[in-house]
Amino acid sequence: DYGDKWAGRYHAARTDLKTYDVSLHGSYKVNELVAVGLTATWEKAKGVLTSAIDVGTLMYGGAVAQGVPPTTPAILGFIGNNDSIAKYEGDSQAWGFGFGVLVKPMEGSRIGLSYKASVKHEAKGDLTFNPVSDSANAGLASVRRSTNPLVDKVRDSSDAKLELELPQSISLGYAHDIADFTVFANFTQTM
Predict the structure, then answer these.
(1) Is residue 38 scored above 90 in pLDDT?
(2) Who contacts 94 (Cβ-Cβ below 8 Å, separation ≥6)?
(3) Where are the beta strands (DSSP E) in the chain?
(4) 83-111 per-residue burial string, b: 16 or more CB within 10 A, e: under 16
């Protein structure tokens, strides 16, 4: 959470994303040396994303479009001083899968290879715009009443959609038993 005043606020101010997984695992022992497994996963994602919208730039563009000279000090003061915070809040449910192989090359040693597929979410939720000042509020209302082609980009929506793809991963692990201890190493690549 970077707040409403940081320099990158037009890209992102706050991101809060949580996922919850419920998985069902199954395995099959092929023989004494090899076992295979399969996983089905139901995932719920919830998130809040915010960023600033420079309503002042939209106000400036509207004034110039109506014939006000672009170098007029009064309208130049709009830019960067009349933000509105765009907030998207939504959730999604999706399914994923994974599989793995476990090999026992010698007594006390195990090598495992697993794959987890990417999970694609299409979240549905609410998009709202919250002006941070009275002048930004007036500017946003003015832009929404105008014929500015960007007007549809700054309307509140209860049917906003956001696509999110959580990455796939592949893991390779090795375990070896030494007396009463097990030594384990793992390498995971997220793609």
Answers:
(1) yes
(2) 42, 43, 45, 119, 120, 121, 122
(3) 14-29, 34-54, 83-103, 109-116, 119-131, 157-166, 169-178, 181-190
(4) bbbbbbbbebebebebebebeeeeeeebe
* Residue listed under structure tokens 């929506």: 157
Query: How many angstroms separate the CA atoms of 168 and 163, rounded?
Result: 16
CB of 111 closer than 8 Å to CB of 173: yes
100, two tokens = 């793995």
Q: Is the distance from CB of 170 to CB of 112 less than 8 angstroms? A: no
Degrees, nearest 5: CA angle 6-11-13? 50
pLDDT at residue 50 is higher than 70: yes
167 DSSP assignment? P
Confidence of residue 7 (pLDDT cuts 50, 70, 90): confident
**Long-range contacts of residues 69-78, Cβ cutoff 8 Å, at least 24 apart:** 78/139
175, pLDDT greater than 70: yes
Average pLDDT over every residue of 30-41 = 97
Report, as an integer, the average pLDDT of 148-169: 82
109, 117, 131: which is closest to 185 by C-alpha?
A: 109
